[in-house]
Amino acid sequence: MTNSVLVVELDDAAASSIVSALGASASRVPDAGAIRAHVAATGAQCVVVGASIPAPLAKQVSTEVKVANPLARTVWIRERLETQLVLSAVRDGATDVVAVDALEDLVLAVARGVRDARADGVATGVATDTELAPALAVFSPKGGVGKTTIATSLGAQLAHERDLRVALIDLDLEFGDAQIHLAVKLHHSIADLAADSIDEHALTAAMLRHESGMVVLAAPPTPELGETVTVDLIGRVIDQARRMFDVVIVDCPPTLNETVLTAFDNCSHISVITTPDVAALKNVASSLRALQRLGTRADINLMLNMARPDVGCSAKDVEHALAQHSLPFTVTAELPSCPGLQAATNAGHLAILAEPQGELAVALRSWAVTNLPLPTPDSAAPARARRRLGVRSRKAAIA
To answer: Which of 51, 159, 327, 369 would staple 100 via disulfide (CB 3.0–4.6 Å)?
Structure first.
């Protein structure tokens, strides 16, 4: 939404810095007394109150924001984050409080505010979320559990079998290899994009095409380039992709860093992958506990990958072990071990497309239908034109 974020800041330089960090969705309101009218006119979902605004006026701004839009969030910037000051700000209407020199924290706080305002709007029936496609973050805190295989297989299956527009975003910025799993040549990556110029055309130009019909935004070719990718860029990329595609899948790195937290903030679903072993389950429990503390609004589910009846760790065992630590999460899929999976990847093929009735294909197909709000090809995102980024439909490719 245009101007979904408003910035109230008396200092010109500070205001310019904040608006620049937040990007095209933000605009400045130089007169704090006019904030109610601006929120009402723009439908703003988040208002940033700058450090130059004294506490009494900041409280008044927060009150006016709530009058104009009860769902809107208010993020205060303060010179110091002493406990009593933060508690006082929250009592006076601040949804979140960040330090004056922490622009990255501000970007994350605003992203959470906009996300939560949208979610509340949808939950209460005040707004609809038809403009945003479902976005699934595929995550595991442990490497080697098949996370990328699941992400690429699921995306290719949805594109190939259901003729949906599917985008896969590889966010393992240091060592992402989704394009290797898919055997597509690395021409472009997310590092070629700039946060202040993300639009349909820029994202289209950076994406790679897979034979299934899925398109891929690859990870940077080197870890050094990965360091140039900001959380602001990541949030904008996911948001833009959700407006262009029917389904967005985000392949996350195996660590709870700012990259992953930003992905979680911008996705509607999170699949946490574990394997039936104690080490993987221990790390998964720690991650789920962290997600509980963060209070993400995404739908969180567990996938048990490489499930085998002879290892003594079933889905029920996983759920029971987590419940013992007050982690009441459900395993929504048991994905079997596939002996030929690695050989297929090495040969540049996706086993799931070669064996559409194989155990893995059947399990993923069932999971997607049950857990993702998938559109039908004819009704997918009616508010958006069906743009295929130059990728022919499966039917056209076969003809």
So the answer is: 51
Residue 129 lies in a domain: no
Do residues 98 and 159 share a domain?
no
Q: Between the CA of residue 110 and those of 87, 99, 366, what are the distances in Å? A: 19, 13, 36
Say how far apart CA 125 and CA 121 lie, in whole Å. Answer: 6
**Going edge to edge, which strands form the sheet with 26-28?**
26-28, 5-8, 46-49, 73-78, 96-99
The DSSP symbol for 269 reads E
Would you call 90 helix, strand, or coil by DSSP? helix
Residue 3, classed as helix, strand or coil, is coil
Residue 396 has pLDDT above 50, yes or no: no
Return the SS3 of 364: helix
Give me the amino acid identity at 167.
Answer: A
Same domain, 113 and 146: no
Residue 130 lies in a domain: no
Domain count, the chain: 2
Residue 19, classed as helix, strand or coil, is helix
Greatest CA span in the chain, whole angstroms? Answer: 68
Q: What is the pLDDT of residues 235-281, one digit of tens each?
A: 999 999 999 999 999 999 999 999 999 999 899 999 999 998 888 88
Question: Mean pLDDT across the stretch 294-321?
Answer: 84
| pTM as predicted | 0.67
Tell me, yes or no, whether 385 lies in a domain: yes
Q: Which two tokens stand for residue 150?
A: 């699941």
Using the 3D structure, point to which of 124, 143, 162 is the last residue of a domain.
124
